[in-house]
Amino acid sequence: MPRLSADSTSDIQEVLDLARRDATIYDPVFLNRFHAHFPTLHRLFFTLYGERDDGVEQLSAVIAEASASWNARPLELRARDDRSDVDPEWFQSERMLGGVCYVDRYAGSLAGIREKIPYFQELGLSYLHLMPIFESPEGNSDGGYAVSSYRRVDPRVGTMAELAHLATELRAADISLVVDFIFNHTSNEHDWARKAIAGEPGFEDFYLIYPDRTMPDAYEQTVREIFPDDHPGAFVQLDDGRWIWATFYHFQWDLNYANPAVFRAMAGEMLFLANQGVEILRMDAVAFIWKRLGTPCESLPEAHLLLRAFNEVLRMAAPCLLFKSEAIVHPDEVVEYISLEECQLSYNPLQMALTWEALATRDPRLLQQALERRHALPSGTSWVNYVRSHDDIGWTFADEDAAELGIHGYSHRRFLNDFFVGRAPGTFARGVPFQENPKTGDARVTGTTASLAGIEADDAGGVDRVILAHSIALSTGGVPLIYLGDEVAQLNDYSYVVDPATADDSRWVHRPANPADRYAQRDDPATVPGQVYGRLSALIRARRSTPEFAGNELIGFDAHHPAVLGYQRPGADAASPCILVLANVGDDPARIEPMTLSGFQGDAEDIVTKSPVDLTDGMTMPAHGFVWLRVTPVG
Ligand code: GLC
After folding, report:
1. Mean pLDDT of 45-65
2. InterPro entries, from UniProt (predicted)?
3. Mean pLDDT of 279-283
4. Is any ligand 1 atom within 6 A of the Cβ of residue 182?
5. Which among 70, 80, 408, 518 is least surrounded, fewest beta carbons within 10 Å?
6. Which of 100, 248, 251, 481 to mutate to test the pocket of ligand 1 (most atoms within 8 A of CB)?
7. Does the beta carbon of 219 sit less than 6 angstroms from any atom of ligand 1?
8. Pairs from 40-44 (Cβ < 8 Å, separation ≥ 24)
C-alpha cells in the first residue's frame, strides 16, 4: 500500500475506492460534506501519519466508518445537525445551564435519571453531563474513567438502548446529553488491551508497551506524576515483566495515537456515541494524548492535530456534535484547545480555582486579573464555568500572573492547600487533600461546595459564600455548570474510606449519593438547603431573562475597593444598558463610592430582586454579598 502523498487531490480517489469496499458511500449530503472536509482531514493525516505505510488504508477505513455512521444516523439527529448549521452558537444562550451527576449515585440507573427530568426542568437545565456510564472493571474503575467498552453501558445502570432513548427524552425537554469521551486510555480489561498484551496482530501497537525499563526511564525524565498515590512515574509493570504506559491508575492504559489504527478505532467509537444522541463529548484528559521522548508529553502539537482530525470526521458524519475540552493545565495551554476546529467548549479551571482562592484570601485581585486577561475566547466558542467538579481543585494559575501582584506561586499554593483542608488557622473550609506528593510538595483539594465554603463548619458566611461562588459562575458567560446536589448544599461524605474501591481516592468525599433529605427541604427557607436552593434558583431565573449574559464577552470594572470584584457584561453596543456585577469576597461590608459608579446613569435595576437602585448615593455591599445591576452608561 502506498503512503499518503502530500497532496490530497492525488489520494482522494484511491481513498474513496478503498472505503467503498467496506461501506456504501452514496448519499449526496454525505458526499458534499466529505468533499468539504477531506482536504483538511487528509492534510492532518499526512502530518501525523505521512511516514507510515498504512496511512492510506487507515484513512480509507475512517471514511468508510464515517459514511456507514451517517447512513445509520437517525432522522431526528440529522434535524439537530441542521439546527446547528442554522444556529451554530446555540450553546452561547443565556438560557444555558448545565448539571452533572453520577448516574448510579444520583438516580440509581438511567431509568432513575429519566424520572428526574421534571426536576431538571424545574432547575432550568439545558445540558446534562452523565459521568462515565460505560462498562468498566469491578471495584475501583476511577469512577468509570477506565472504560472496557465504549459500546456497552454498565449493566448495573442500564443499556445503550436506554441511553439512546434517554437522549431523545432529554432533547424533548430541551436538554442536551453530554457524556465523556475517554480517549486517552482504556481499562486493562478492554478487548483491545487484552489483544495487545497477547500480541494479537493489529493490536500490538494500540498501547505503549516496552520490554524493559530503558524507554520508561527515559520518558520519566520529563513527565509529571499524575496519580503518585497509585504508582510512581507514568508506567506500570505487566505480569510478564514488560512495562506499559499508564498516566492515571495502573489499570488505565494510554492509547498509542502514533498508530493510525488507534485513531481509526476511536473515531468509530466517537461516531457510535454521536448516533446514540449525545450532543457534547467531554474530551477527557486531552492534554495527554500524544507522547514524545524528551518532552513533558502534555499538550504537544500533535494533540491539537488529533483533535482537529476528529472534528473533521464529525463534520462529515455527525455535524452537530461539539467537543468540550478537559485540560486542567497552565492557563496558556488551556486556551490552545479552544477553537471552532478543536474544542468549541472548555472547562474554565482557572476561574474555578481563583473563585476559591478569592474566598480564602478575601482578595479578588488574582480573579480580577484572570477575568480581564484570560477570559476572552475565539468567537463561536465558550467556557463552561463551574464552582467545582467531580475532580479535585488544582491551583492552576500562572506563577507569572501571581508574581505581578506580589504573590509567590509556590507558597500561595501551599497556603491554599492548607486553608482548604482545614489546616490553616481560622479556616472555614473542610476539604480533604488529594494526591499529596512529598517529592514535589504538590497537592490538590477535594470537598463539596458547601463543605469547602463553610457550611459544614457552621461558619456564619457559609451559605453566602456558596451563593457568591455560584453567582460568579452564572454571570461570567458561557455555560454555567452545577454539580447536582450542590444546589441543596450537600456536604462531604466521609464513608468513602470504608469501601476498598474508593478508600484511596479522596475525590469520593465530594461525590455523595443523592441527598434526598436535603432535596425534600429545598422549598423550606428555614433550612440551609432551602436557603441555598431558593437563592440559587432566583439567580438562575434572572440569568435566563438577561440577554447580556449570553456569550462570553466581559469587561473588567474597577470597584475601587480591596475586597470587591467587578466586571461588566456588555449590551448590544457601548451606549446600551449592560450588566454590572460587583462581588464582595470580604468578611466586612464594602462601601462603593458614588464617584466609582458615576460612569453610569443614576437609575439602575437589580435584575435579581427586580428593584430599582439609585447609584448616585453609592452602594454598601454586605459581607460575601454581590449584585447584578442593569446599568446605562452616561451618554
Ligand atoms: C479526567 C477525569 C478524572 C479521571 C482522569 C482519568 O481528569 O476528570 O476524574 O481520573 O481523567 O481518566
Report:
1. 97
2. Amylosucrase, GH, GH13_cat_dom, Glyco_hydro_b, O16G_dom_2
3. 98
4. yes
5. 408
6. 248
7. no
8. 40/308, 40/312, 41/309, 41/312, 41/313, 42/4, 42/8, 42/11, 42/12, 42/15, 43/8, 44/305, 44/308, 44/309, 44/312
Residues marked active site are found at: 284, 326
For the chain, helix, strand, coil in percent to 5 are 40, 15, 40
E-strand spans in 263-316? 280-283
Identify which of 102, 119, 118 has the alpha carbon closest to the alpha carbon of residue 110. 102
Binning pLDDT at 50, 70 and 90, where does residue 635 land? confident
Atom of ligand 1 nearest to the CA of 185: 12
Q: Whose CA is nearest to atom 12 of ligand 1?
A: 145
Ligand 1 atom 4: the closest Cα is on which residue?
A: 145
Whether 173 contacts 124, CB under 8 Å: no
Residue 531, pLDDT above cutoff 90? yes
Give the pairing of strands 98-101 and 479-483.
parallel
Residue 608 pLDDT exceeds 80: yes
pLDDT of 84 over the 90 cut: no
Nearest alpha carbon, ligand 1 atom 3: 391
Residue type, 352: M
- CA–centroid distance, 416 to ligand 1, in Å, is 22
The class (CATH top level) of 93-183+277-391+448-525 is alpha beta
Give the ligand 1 atom nearest the CA of 145. 12
Give dist(CA 29, CA 35) in Å, integer. Answer: 10
Ligand 1 contact, 181 CB (< 6 A): no
Q: What is the pLDDT of residues 290-306, one digit of tens each?
A: 999 999 999 999 999 99
C-alpha cell at 331: 492557563
Handedness of CA 253, 256, 262, 263 (dihedral sign): positive
Per-domain boundaries in the chain:
93-183+277-391+448-525, 553-631
Fold classification of 553-631 is: Immunoglobulin-like (2.60.40)
**Residue with the three cell numbers 486577561:** 373
At residue 117, what is the residue type?
I
pLDDT on residue 442: 83
What is the whole-number distance in angstroms between the Cα of residue 392 and the centre of ligand 1? 10
